[in-house]
Specification:
By secondary structure, the chain is an all-alpha fold. It is built from 33 helices and 2 strands. Strand 1 and strand 2 form a beta hairpin. Helix 19 packs antiparallel against helix 20. This is Nucleolar complex protein 3 homolog.
C-alpha cells in the first residue's frame, strides 16, 4: 500500500519558526514551573523536618498510658499469670513475692525518662529532677566550610550551579620544642626598654623623622608624576595625618598637611567636578574616559577627607579636646591648628573654582575674629582682589553678613575692612534707565511676511543669524551674569553698612562702615541719598566721632553728591565749613595717615566740584592749607602743596594771594570758621617764603614753584613726572613711615644755609665772648633780691 498523500499544503519556514519559538517558550515555562514547585516541596519538607527536630529536642518524653482494668479482667490476668508459672515447684512465699513485683512495675509501664531505679523507695527529702537534665544532649556540629561559587553548567534541564570548598592553606606547623619553665617566666615578665641618653633620643628622633620625610616625598612625587594612575597613594599619604608615634607625631602631621596642600594645588583641574548621573554611570565609555572618571572621583573624595581633617584639627584646638591616643599633647594643638588654618587659607585663595569652596569660606570667615584673624583677613582680602567672576565674593559677603548680625556687631573692624577689596565697578542699571535705552529686537515671522519681500526675508534671516553669533562671541551673557552677581553682592554690603548706622552708631565698626560707604557711594541707589546725608551730618555734629571718622563722613557725602547726586539740589555748605574748621587739628606727628583722606576730600570738594565752589571759598582753603603745611611732616607738606597747586590751576584768580596789595575792604580773619567770610583776598601766602627754606628738598621745590604762580611751562615749572602725580600719590611716594627721608636730606651747617652775614657776625662775637662770661650763681642773685625787698 502506498502511503497517503498529504492533502494540505506544507507549512512555511516562517510558520514553523513561529511554532517552534512558542514550543520552546512553553517548554521553558513548564520547566521553570516544575523547578519552582519542586523547590517549594523541598523547602516545605525541610521546614517540617526542622520543626520535628526542634520539637523532639525541647519536648520531654511522657510515659506510656496506663489503662485501668476492670476487676474481672484483673482476676483473669492473674489466673493466666499463675498458670504460666511453675507453681508446683515454688513455695508460697516466693509466689506472693512474684505477684507483688508484677503489680508494682513492669517495663512497659515504666517512665523511660526517669533515671531512678525501679524498686527504689521515694524519699520526701529528694529534690525533683531539673528540666535541663531531661533535655537530650546535642551532637557536636561540624564547622561550615566556606564555598566558592563557580560558573554554572548548562544542560538540557537548565542551569546547574557549581561550587567547591575553599582550600585551606595549611599553616606551617612549627615543631613543638620543649619549653623550659625559665623561658615561660621570662616571657611573662615585661620587656625592659633600655634608657637612652638625651643625645641618643635626639638621634633616634632625627632618624625616624628622616624615614617619614622620605616616605612622604616618595608618595608625593609618585602622585605628581602620574596623578591618574597613582591617585590611590593620596589615601596612604593622608593616613600619615594620624601619626601615633609621640616622638615625631606633631612634626609629621605638619609636614603631611603642607605636602597635601602642594599636591592638591598641582593636580586639581581648572574646573569643578560634578557627580555623575545614573544615565552616565550606566552608559558604556572608553577606557580613557573611565580612567578619568575614577581619577576625578578619587580626587574629590580625598580632597573632602583632607578638608575634614583640617577642620577637625582646628576644632580640637578651639575645644581643647584631648584625644585618646595621646600622641599629641594639648600644648601642641595650637601649632597644629595654625598650620591647618594656613593650609585652609591657601586653598581658599588658590582653588576658588574647585569643589567645596563654599565650605572653606564657612570655615575661614568665623576665624577672622580669633587670634589668627590677621592670617584669615589677609586671605579673604586677597581672594576678593583676584576674584573676577564674583561668585566667591558673593559667598564671602553672605557669610560675613550672617556673622556680623549673629554676633550683634561684636566683631573686629578688620572684618569689614576686607570688603574694601571688592572689585565692583559696575552694577545693574535701574529699571527706568533700562526702559529708555534702545533694545535690539528681532522681527517676528508675521512682521517679516507683511513688510518684507521673499528676498528681503532671506537676507534678514542671514543677518539675524550673524548677529546672534556675534553676541555669543562677545560673551554678553557672561557679562550680564557678572553684573547680576556684583549687584547682589553690593546690596548685601550696603545692608551690613546701613544696619550698623542704624543700630550700632557707637560701635568700633563705624570707621570701617564710613570708609566703605565712601568707597562704594557712587553705586548707592538714588532713593537713599537724602536720608543718608542727614544721618552723616548728624554723626558729624554729635561730637562722638574721631577726626578720622568725621573725615570719612565728609568724603562719603561728597562721593554721593559727585555721582548720581548731581541731579539733587543740595548745598553741602555745612560739610565745607566743618572741614575748614578741623583742618588745623590734623596730626603733625608720625601717625599722619589722615593726610591721605584730607587730600581726597579736597580733590572731591574743590577740584571736581569747581562749578559749585565760589572764589572766596577756594581762596580761604588755599590760605588755610598753606598755614597747615608749616607744621606737618615733609610727606604731608608735599601733598598739601600739591593740592594748592591743583587749586591754583583750577581757580586761576587765586594768584592774587601772591601779591602784597589788598583788594576790597576788611582784614583777614583766620579765626573765623567760614571760608567765605574770613576775607582771604586781603592776605598773602607769606608761608611760602618759610617753606622755601625747608630742610626737605621736595618741599623747597614745590614752595618755589608756587611762588612763581605754579607755571606749567618755563623755568619755574615742575618736571613732567612730578606734574602728573596726584597729591595722594606724592604723599605716598615721599612717605616717612620708615623714619627715613625720601630723598635723603643734605647735610648743612646753620651759617651756610639760612643765616645772613650780619647775623652771622653777631653770633660769632657772642661765641667768642662766651669764655669771658662768669658762671651764673642763682643763689647769690636770690639773696640780693631778698635784701632789696627788705630794704624797700
Amino acid at each position: 500500500l502506498t502511503p497517503l498523500q498529504n492533502l494540505f499544503n506544507p507549512p512555511s519556514f516562517r510558520k514553523l519558526l513561529k511554532t517552534s519559538n512558542l514550543k520552546l517558550e512553553n517548554k521553558l515555562k513548564n520547566r521553570q514551573f516544575k523547578q519552582q514547585s519542586s523547590a517549594k516541596k523541598q523547602r516545605k519538607e525541610q521546614r517540617k523536618l526542622r520543626q520535628a527536630i526542634t520539637d523532639v529536642s525541647h519536648k520531654t518524653l511522657k510515659p506510656l498510658e496506663r489503662y485501668k482494668k476492670k476487676p474481672g479482667e484483673e482476676e483473669e490476668d492473674e489466673e493466666e499469670f499463675l498458670e504460666s508459672l511453675p507453681v508446683d515447684m515454688m513455695d508460697d512465699d516466693d509466689l506472693e513475692q512474684i505477684r507483688a513485683m508484677a503489680k508494682k512495675a513492669s517495663f512497659l509501664t515504666r517512665d523511660i525518662s526517669s533515671c531512678t531505679p525501679v524498686h527504689a523507695k521515694k524519699r520526701k527529702s529528694e529534690q525533683p529532677v531539673k528540666k535541663y537534665e531531661k533535655m537530650p544532649r546535642k551532637m557536636q556540629q561540624e564547622e561550615e566550610k566556606e564555598l566558592i561559587h563557580l560558573l554554572p553548567i548548562k544542560d538540557k534541564s537548565g542551569l546547574i550551579p557549581q561550587s567547591m570548598e575553599k582550600p585551606v592553606v595549611p599553616e606551617a606547623e612549627e615543631e613543638e620544642e620543649p619549653v623550659d619553665q625559665d623561658e615561660l617566666n621570662q616571657e611573662e615578665e615585661p620587656e625592659i626598654v633600655p634608657l637612652l641618653t638625651p643625645q641618643e633620643q635626639l638621634e633616634l628622633r632625627a632618624q625616624k623623622l628622616t624615614e617619614k620625610k622620605l616616605h612622604m616625598a616618595s608618595l608625593s612625587s609618585a602622585v605628581l608624576a602620574d596623578p591618574h594612575v597613582n591617585i590611590k597613594k593620596l589615601k596612604e599619604l593622608r593616613a600619615m595625618l594620624m601619626e601615633t608615634d609621640p616622638c615625631v607625631a606633631v612634626t609629621v602631621r605638619k609636614l603631611v598637611m603642607v605636602s597635601l596642600l602642594e599636591v592638591f594645588k598641582d593636580i586639581v583641574p581648572s574646573y569643578r567636578i560634578r557627580p555623575l548621573t545614573e544615565e552616565e554611570k550606566a552608559a558604556k565609555v572608553k577606557k580613557e574616559t573611565l580612567q578619568l572618571r575614577e581619577f576625578e572621583e578619587g580626587l574629590v573624595s580625598q580632597y573632602k577627607f583632607y578638608l575634614e581633617d583640617l577642620e577637625q584639627t582646628v576644632k580640637d584646638w578651639k575645644q581643647k579636646k584631648q584625644k585618646r591616643s595621646q600622641a599629641v599633647s594639648l600644648q601642641s594643638y595650637k601649632g597644629l591648628a595654625e598650620v591647618a588654618i594656613r593650609c585652609i587659607c591657601d586653598l581658599l585663595v588658590a582653588l576658588p573654582h574647585f569643589n567645596f569652596h563654599n565650605n572653606i569660606v564657612v570655615m575661614v570667615v568665623p576665624l577672622m575674629r580669633d587670634s589668627v584673624s590677621e592670617m584669615c583677613c589677609g586671605a579673604v582680602s586677597k581672594l576678593l582682589k583676584q576674584d573676577k567672576l564674583g561668585q566667591a565674593s558673593l559667598a564671602v559677603v553672605k557669610v560675613i553678613s550672617g556673622m556680623v548680625k549673629g554676633r550683634n556687631y561684636n566683631v573686629k573692624p578688620e572684618v569689614l575692612n576686607c570688603l574694601l577689596c571688592l572689585r565692583i565697578k559696575e552694577v545693574e542699571m535701574r529699571k527706568d534707565t533700562e526702559d529708555t535705552a534702545p533694545k535690539k529686537k528681532f522681527m517676528s515671522f508675521k512682521e517679516k511676511r507683511t513688510n518684507l519681500s521673499r528676498m528681503q526675508r532671506k537676507w534678514k534671516k542671514a543677518e539675524e543669524k550673524l548677529q546672534k553669533e556675534l553676541l555669543e562671541a562677545e560673551a554678553s551673557e557672561s557679562k550680564d551674569k557678572k553684573i547680576k552677581l556684583h549687584t547682589e553682592t553690593l546690596n548685601i554690603v550696603f545692608l551690613i553698612y546701613f544696619r550698623i548706622l542704624k543700630k550700632a552708631q557707637k560701635s568700633i565698626l563705624l570707621p570701617s562702615v564710613l570708609e566703605g560707604l565712601a568707597r562704594f557711594a557712587h553705586l548707592i541707589n538714588l532713593e537713599f541719598f537724602d536720608d543718608l546725608l542727614s544721618v552723616l551730618y548728624g554723626l558729624i555734629t554729635s561730637g562722638d566721632l574721631t577726626y578720622r571718622e568725621s573725615l570719612h563722613c565728609i568724603l562719603t557725602s561728597f562721593h554721593i553728591l559727585s555721582g548720581q547726586g548731581d541731579v539733587l539740589n543740595i548745598d553741602p555748605l555745612k560739610f565745607y565749613n566743618h572741614l575748614y574748621k578741623t583742618l588745623l587739628t590734623l596730626h603733625a606727628g608720625g601717625r599722619n595717615e589722615d593726610t591721605a583722606i584730607v587730600l581726597q576730600c579736597l580733590d572731591v570738594m574743590l577740584t571736581k566740584r569747581r562749578k559749585q565752589v565760589t572764589l572766596q571759598r577756594a581762596q580761604g582753603f588755599l590760605k588755610r592749607l598753606s598755614t597747615l603745611s608749616l607744621h606737618l611732616l615733609p610727606d604731608s607738606s608735599v601733598g598739601i602743596l600739591a593740592a594748592n597747586r591743583a587749586l591754583m590751576h583750577t581757580f586761576p584768580k587765586c594768584d592774587i594771594l601772591l601779591d602784597n596789595e589788598m583788594q576790597g575792604s576788611g582784614v583777614y580773619l583766620p579765626e573765623l570758621d567760614v571760608p567765605e567770610y574770613c576775607n582771604p583776598q586781603n592776605t598773602a601766602l607769606w608761608e611760602l617764603h618759610l617753606l622755601k627754606r625747608h630742610y626737605h628738598p621736595m618741599v623747597r621745590k614745590f614752595a618755589a614753584h608756587l611762588m612763581k604762580g605754579a607755571p606749567s611751562e618755563g623755568s619755574g615749572a615742575l618736571s613732567m613726572e612730578l606734574s602728573r602725580r596726584t597729591p595722594v600719590q606724592l604723599f605716598e611716594d615721599y612717605s616717612v613711615k620708615d623714619m627715613s627721608f625720601n630723598p635723603p636730606v643734605e647735610h648743612f651747617t646753620i651759617g651756610d644755609a639760612f643765616l645772613d652775614s650780619e647775623l652771622k657776625t653777631l653770633i660769632n662775637a657772642a661765641l667768642q665772648n662766651e669764655s669771658e662770661l662768669t658762671s651764673l650763681d642763682f643763689t647769690s642773685q636770690q639773696t640780693q633780691q631778698e635784701t632789696r625787698m627788705t630794704a624797700n
